[in-house]
Structures are given as C-alpha cells and as structure tokens.
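Researcher: We're reviewing a set of sequences before deciding which ones to prioritize for further study. For each one, I'd like a predicted 3D structure that I can look through quickly. This is Chloride channel protein. If possible, include the structure in token form so it fits the rest of the review sheet.
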Amino acid sequence: MNSASKNACLATCLWTIGLFSSGISSATPTEELNGVGNLMDFLDEPFPDVGTYEDFHTIDWLREKSRDTDRHRKITSKSKESIWEFIKSLLDAWSGWLVMLLIGLLSGTLAGVIDLAVDWMTDLKEGVCLSALWYSHEQCCWTSNETTFADRDKCPQWQKWAELMTGYTEGAGVYLLNYFLYVLWALFFSFLAVSLVRVFAPYACGSGIPEIKTILSGFIIRGYLGKWTLLIKTVTLVLAVSSGLSLGKEGPLVHVACCCGNLFCSLFSKYSKNEGKRREVRTSVSYYFPLKTLWRSFFAALVAAFTLRSINPFGNNRLVLFYVEYHTPWYMAELVPFILLGVFGGLWGTLFIRCNIAWCRRRKTTRLGKYPVLEVIAVTGITAVLAFPNPYTRRSTSELISELFNDCGALESSQLCDYINNPNMTRPVDDIPDRPAGPGVYSALWQLTLALVFKIVITIFTFGMKIPSGLFIPSMAVGAIAGRIVGIAVEQMAYHHHDWIIFKNWCRPGADCVTPGLYAMVGAAACLGGVTRMTVSLVVIMFELTGGLEYIVPLMAAAVTSKWVADAFGKEGIYEAHIQLNGYPYLDQDEFTHRTLATDVMRPRRNEPPLAVLTQDSTTVEDVETLIKDTDYNGFPVVVSHESERLIGFVQRRDLILNIKNARQKQDGVVSNSVVYFTEDAPQIPASNPQPLKLRRILNLSPFTVTDHTPMETVVDIFRKLGLRQCLVTRSGRLLGIITKKDVLRHMAQMMNQDPESIMFN
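Model: Here's the predicted structure for Chloride channel protein, in token form for your review sheet.
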C-alpha cells in the first residue's frame, strides 16, 4: 500500500499502531469487567441528550460500554419476537461492515484525488500543459509523440510561463519571470489555504494527529471531525502542499480519514449515540482490540487500497509511493554508517521537537499568534524565494525523495547519476560497478547540502501554522538528503580505497558494492523515527512506502538507534509534545514509578472545602441547582447522608441539568422545594410537601473506587487501561475524595518537574 492509501484508511487499519507511536492511553474496557452495573434505570426511559458529554470533556468508557451492552441485549431479546425484529438485528450486526465499506471507498477516493490535484497544482507554479490544462508536467509529456528518451521531461505541449508569455526559453529575463511567477503562485495557494481554514473550518489546520490521538483516548472536541472540517481540510491540504511549503499530506490524511469515519457513523444510531462505538470505528488501536474490529479494519484498508488502485494517481500501476529496486545486497560493514545515520536522525528529531515547540509556544503566548495569515504568507514567501534557485528544493518533496531513493542505472539522467563510465564496460544494465563521481555528482552534493540546511531550518517554522501540515514527508526528506550524501561518500571511499581493511573483505575492484539510494532510505527512516519515536511500525511503513522488504536489518538498526539517541534527550515524540503544549488530557505509555498514594492526589486536599456531594433522599431541587451553579464539576458522588458519607453512586452534571429542566417543564408539581431522591422507593414525606423527583435512572450505581492507600502507580494504570474519567476514593465504604483524569495528569507533570497547570482539560 502506498503513502496515500495507508493514510486514507489509517483511522481503521492496523498501520495506525505505528503512526500513533505508543498507542492510545485511554481505551475501551473489556467485556469481562465485573461490577460495571446497569448505569441506567430503564424503568423510566431516558429522554434525548441524557448520557451525552460537554465539549472539551472526556467520555466515560465504562458507561459507554455498559450502554452498548444494554442496547445489544434489547436487540437480541426483541429479535425473538418477530421476523421483522430479527431482520433489524441482522441489519444492526452488519452496520459495522457497511460503515467500513463506505469509509474505505471515500477515504481511498479522497486520497487519490488529493494526489492527482497536488501533482497538477505543484507543476502549475512552473508552467501549463497546452494540450490539456488539467494535466501535470509528467502526464502532459506522456501523451506527447514528440518526446525523446534523452529529454523525456521536455515536450512541446508543456510550456513554462515565461516561454508562454514571451516566446523565449532562455535568458536572464526568462529566469526572473519564471522566478517571480513561481513565488506568486506559491503565495496565492498558501493565502487561499489559510483564508479558507480561518473563515470556514479553524479545526482544519495542522497535522491533526495530536488531536486525533486525544479524541481516540476519549476526549470530546465538537466539530473537529465534522463535515465542514472534512471538506476544507481536503481542499486546503492540496493548496498547502502545492504551495511548496515544507510540509506533507500524510499526517492530515489521518484527520481526513477520521472525518470520513465520523461522517458515516452519524448515519447509524448504533454509533451516533455511543461515543465509545464511534471510536471503535475511527481507529483500531487500543489495549482493547476485539477481533471483529481487526477484521473490519482489514476490510476498510482493502477497500481503500482497491479504490486508490483503480484511480492510479501515480500512473505506474503500483500502490507504492517510492518504489525501489536495488540490485546489490548490503554488507555487515555498512551497519556502521547506517547506525551513524540513526544517530543523526535522533539528534535531528531532538533539535526539531525542541525548536518547533519553542516556536509554537511563542506563537501561542505572543502577538504572533494573532496574525496567522501574515505568518503563513511570510513563511511561504521566504520558502519560495529560497527554494527556487536550488533544483532540489524547487521540486515537490515527494519527487525529491523519490530521486534520492533511486538507484543509478545506465538509463538515469539525474545529476546524482553523473558518474564517469568506463567505455569498455560490457556488463548488463542492472550490474553497473562502482564508478568515480563526475562533475554532476559533486555539483549535486553541494546543492543537497544547501537543501539539507534549508529543510532543517524552514520545517521548524512551518509545522504548526494555521494550514494543514504533515511532518512525515519533510522528516523523510531531511533524512534522505543526509543519507544520500553519506551513501555517495561511502561509495567513493570504497572505489578509491578498496584496499582498506573495512572494504577489503567485501568490495572488490570493479564490483558494485555500495548503493547510495539505500542510504537515503535508511536516513529517511532514521529522521522520521527521531521525530515520531516510532520503531517497529516505522520499519513497516518504510516497507510499504518503498517495497524494500529485504532491507529490514538496516532499517531496524537505524530506527532503534534513532529512538535511543532521541530518548536520551527526552521521551516525547513531536505529537506527544504538541498534546502537552495544548494541555490535552492524554495519558501516554510511560511507566509511573513514583511512590505516591491515592490520598496524595485526591481532592479535597488539606485546607480545601469539603467534597461537594448529593444525598440519596434529602436533597431538594433548589439545593441541586445551587450546587450546579456554584461549581463546575463534571459530576457529583451520591451518599446516604452527610453524616455517614456511605457511597451510593455517582451522577453526571449534564444529566442532572437536563433531567431537572425536563421535569420542571413536563412534570407537574416539581418545584424548588421538591425532594430529589436516587433510591428505588420514594422517601416518606408529608402529604403537604411538593411532589418529589426521582432521578435513579441517571445514577451510576457502581462507580469505580480505590482505597486511599492505593499506590498511584496502580491508579495511573487503571486510568490508562480502563479509560476512566474519574474514580472515587473510599475507606471501608466511606467516601473520602475523588481523583479525576486531570488530577492524575497534573500529578504526573508535577513528578516530572513540569508545570501542572499546563493540563487544562479533564
């Protein structure tokens, strides 16, 4: 599967495991969990919106799982009553497969269209195809009958803008006019992209992966996966990549695919009314990974790949973006430069993360963040002005990586393949020996060195702007450039010094010993790993991108070395760093090793007001409304009485608000003095008192509890694996306090000497 097809169905395929580095911290619980209980009392049917969540809050996985179990029991029970109910149960069971089919079709189609549009608009900055305006440069010359092999990139049908306007193909004026129009097109594309994002869909900016990881862990961000976001993200992604900025489309395609999943989930009540089931569709990554989700993910990936293959955006009948075919095996001695590339990747990843986070923090805390359009225009202008003179930065980043990965055969015309050939060579085309570098190679090395410095610097300021921006391709480009330079250096050393001990045993004179393209591929994997902290999944990604299955050891060596070096300076990858910067409630997979207890983290702490609670049968409607007005808690524990503080259950704030509002409007006799009770039977009250309000149906009768002496290591593990929103702290059944997800995250930040106030959401 190529880059586009992978990312098109990332929300539903196993490859997402690598992209999300260390997985999703808060995942759906298993069916075998005991003590979840029936969260709703269905003797009283709940009205719409009960059980839903406020924006920027975390869902309750246990609650969602229990609701889905109850729904499934109802359907199973009714299916035995009639043929129609049985058919409805079958439709419900197959709705998941239908959703996956639709996701695969739409994701694959969007990926193919985006690829084709990016190729066309990228070439539009330099010229136009006269025979068909919608053809890219490559497609235009494919259809030409006047193209020669030596000049296969030149054809009469394709004309650069200066040639079209002036009729001349060479000269200083022609160069400057092409230069000016290149910059002008880049500015126009980027301005249009940032304007569309700012006006119609602010959530369409950025990579989307930090937010997607947080959403999949249970966080609610209304509108982030909406229809407008899908439309604007798709359009502006094409514009942003075509502008020539140092960004890629792979990361944003994850966001696009999740938007597709959310769109089709809204068509089926099974998913639209259950946040947990929605996340089962959006991703296949969690500790809880049912077999049916695996099969459905595979099915969605298959459909997306088939759809993309039908579109054939690359015109080569392959589903691989950077297909490589090397004819020389690698040797054990080459592990040394491979590992050195891994070290470079780790150092680059550390440098990029620290500098990019510092710049993004400055953007958030200074006036710079108030002018997103001006920032995008400025960065685009600088990028275009500096990129045009260098042929390796002028072209699209995907084309650059493809050329760097390529092996130099006898038919290659690239500067990187300008070697001095032996006129007496009679070997087959696929078995060309190492040769001395010609002037074109040395010229290319200088240009690549300048391109490397340019890419390293400009990517730091580009990632995180208010336009769609992925990081996979820019990171791979940095590594591929460094790898190709190292590969050429090793190749020339092996040619000129084959008698050295390091080359003597495996590189004979006249043999094809070193493949510089392989070094570019290894370098790309190393830099991508240094930025994202991926290892095993990174190697799989490189297989899918290149088809180079036999180079598993070099890729693994570089990926592991890159992660070790980067982890020495900090455990966070770029996406985790942006999650922390934005204050999202996301629990990563790092072990918590500090020796603290639940009583050290729970609230209320010393010198704090007592915990806000409700009693089971002695609180009035006015008391509840006052408590809701005076606090901003997401929910309240319910106890027997204020004196005993024996825990009964837990009730959500939103459910209280909706039920009281509904009761005041539709239930006669409910006034401010009405008693609210959560018991099965109404309390004994005088006949003169107003009618009581029963709210047992919204009471969670089995909230998750821990004792005050539970180690925080255990509490963190519980929150991470069960996806808890909060847990109550008790001692012998008596309520002592509460621990929320925000409390856990702030405690972890404090233990790591970080600012606990940076965690803004629960």
